[in-house]
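quick one
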Amino acid sequence: MNEKRSTFGSKLGMVAAAAGSAVGLGNIWRFPSETADGGGAIFIIVYITCILFFGIPLMVAEFLIGRSSRANAAGAFHKLAPDTPWKWVGRLGVLTGFVILGFYMVVCGWTVDYFIQSVTGSLKEVSDFSTNFNTLLANRPKQIGLMAFFVLLTAYFIFSGVQKGIERSAKIMMPVLFLLLIVLVVRALSLEGARGGIDFLFKPDFQEVKSTVFLDAMGQAFFSLSLGMGCMMTYASYFKDNTNLTATAVQVSVLDTLVALLAGMVIFPSAFALTTNPDTIVSELVAGGPGLLFITVPGLFNQMEGSMIWSAMFFLLLAIAALTSTISLMEVVTIYIQEEHKVSRKKGLLFVVIGVLALGALSALSPQFFNILDMASAKIMLPVGGLFISLFAGWYLDKKIVQVELTNDGKIKFGISFLKTYSFILKFLAPVAILLIFLYGLIG
Ligand code: TRP
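structure w/ tryptophan:
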């Protein structure tokens, strides 16, 4: 039965696919506005601490659950813990994937629109970027059309399969993404006055510490690393037996963090260099919030020479990053329906496409619905999922399985002390910390 299940073909492809899932709108859209809000360098220090202490161990936990069971997110718990309520953790994960797709796809549609506006040059004519964005928001049929285009594009890669669709696309798109990002960073850093942005990102000002920074950073770390809903678990079910799980989790996390920092190094130096009023730039960026990318950033590009080249590159970058993430989300839901409801991949995919189109249309039609999906997934469903995944790996899962998976059955020499640290984190540290974000999310 296992023989028929797909695996990734090469090590490079596997890392590209997992990194492709992690790198997305979270890095380029969410990270810069969280960083502005969290006081710059301070936020980044706390964020990196969260990646090291919670992100990587939780990713390893998802990896070992996925690879040892070689099943979809719900099937994994079903196999490792038969006849227990644990399977609900997997089911919640699948539902979360569906909910995230329901609003994420709408943002993907905006990205496509801004790419088109850049290529056709119409973005160059814009004088009020806030109105420009609101005009798009008010045009419901256009938003639905763009969203539907992105859903079908994603579905095409899912339909092509694990190796030919997911892996091959990631192997091409991830290097392109890095290349575009580096070009944009060089452009931003060469602007006069870019220095202020770099200082904001890397020189901590300890007087600026906000009380919520720790919890905000942790939420951002989970979202950015695709943790808490069985997404990395599903990808790990396609890993080969000789994949080093710990090393892969470290590589994916480093790549993800690098992209977030590089995106910051495009946005902040441009903002500091091109603003007319440097004193108010941070508060402007904070106020920009989620609109930062569609209002503030095009405004910045418009002040550069050759503006449409830079903004076309930026929005293409954004679309590519988003696409490898929507592929991972759609795969979670598709393989679940395929395996648990025993239908063909094509039929499973058809259900998913119809469902996502319906949710996406509702969130394009109603900003309230969009916000509910956004909030419910990031603030409730992901933390709850992450909490139970770490409890499962820390307390329930057989220590033998953990050891076999982490050492590839003894082939990877592994410090016992690391294993101990790892189990301490999953048993106590991560669950307590996640519980805190969750409570904070409910109160705040
Ligand atoms: N990590 C992606 C981003 O940064 C989004 C994403 C993909 C995700 N799969 C996920 C978030 C699973 C949470 C869970 O845009």
